[in-house]
Amino acid sequence: MAGENTPIINIITSKLRGELSIPIYNEFSWRFREVQQLISGYDYYAPLREDQDIVEYLLALSIFHNHVIANLDGAEKFYGNVTGHQKAEAITIGKYKLDAAEVRKIRSTIIAYDQLLMKFGLSRNISNYQRTTEFLSKLITLKKYDDEGFRN
Amino acid sequence: MTMRDSETEEKGKPTKSPFRDKDVLKKEITAFINIHKASIVHQADRISDFFEMSCFNYIVGYYVKSGYEVRPAGLQGGIYKYKCSTMGVQSNFSYFEAKFTSGDDTLAFEIHHNLAVQSAHLDKIFTTPDISVIRASSVCYTTEHYERKVRFSFVKQADIISFCEVKNFNPFPELLFNFIGIINELNPAIINDTAVIQRPGHIAPCLMVSGHPNRHLKDIKESLESRYCINILFSLFYTATRTFAKKYLDRVRQTGPLSAYHPTSKFPSYDKDFFDEFLEEEEEEDLSA
Prior knowledge:
A: elongated; B: 8 helices
């Protein structure tokens, strides 16, 4: 288990195979570089200057969502599409069998992820961005709501 | 947990603030990753297949939102057999049926995985898109294709309606131009802009890419989409939900000529001007470096 000072991106990518961990790590690296440049260089992003540690965690989590959770969710939805219409028990992909037991494991991860977001008043919308600036704009809005007490 | 926390959690409201309860957020994110790491590592080998499934789901969803009745078919003993490679006989794998009913008429189509499609230029050459939309019951079989005389499954040129290529990596220029090569092979009417509008409507050929484009790739996409009636979709992890949302569905092109594409919906824009300014500064820095 990673230590307290291990960067969150290292915790997220540890033990994952290169074909999954490298794109996650690379995307995090260039986006976080952008985050640092934007927050330090432009007044619009100044409200996040004191919260760069949290921006780092949420950025890593959103990238993890888009590379992992979204695909697990896609598999779960596909399973639902297939089994919801007919008496299909499972989906096979080569030798792998996506059955009810596997989907339960996937669903458990997805539910835990959603609960984590919900606890902090976040939604999956936080991961729905293309530009890093969009992501930061969402956080600024969120922080504004928090500061003004709209979310309590 | 305090009394206030438990009360608000019961009401489904957030109990914590990411900005005020920083340490809690960090601990909870770390704990979530550590607890579910084993399950994620177990599934990691199949993430690419799951990505293709997600894309297939978006296409199925597109047809549902466009008024088709869609359901899985070709189950093998109660199992949906997903064809994840070009190998294998199509009848041993499952697919989706899409039916469109208008009055007394019902038109039926099928959405397949990895089915070979006959070239528009020569009957005996084929290429295999990741997803194909074809006329119902039009999969053909032959033993003449392979030298070993094993069965080969394909769909004839006249029966292909549309197709999608799915790529789970970062885009690069050659990928986009190669896609135009596939279009030229399977549907040259798109290249000549002589494709006819089909009713009911079908999604135009798509290149679905998970990775992010740089400015050059955005320029290539813009150029290709201005010349050909196709969909080039980047950053699918981030944009698919919006791209295939019902209210923006008219932005996804349908098969037909370019002149038929008149979307009325608009994606919400963020700080575009600011970002462009930032990007230009970055590029100037790169050039000076």
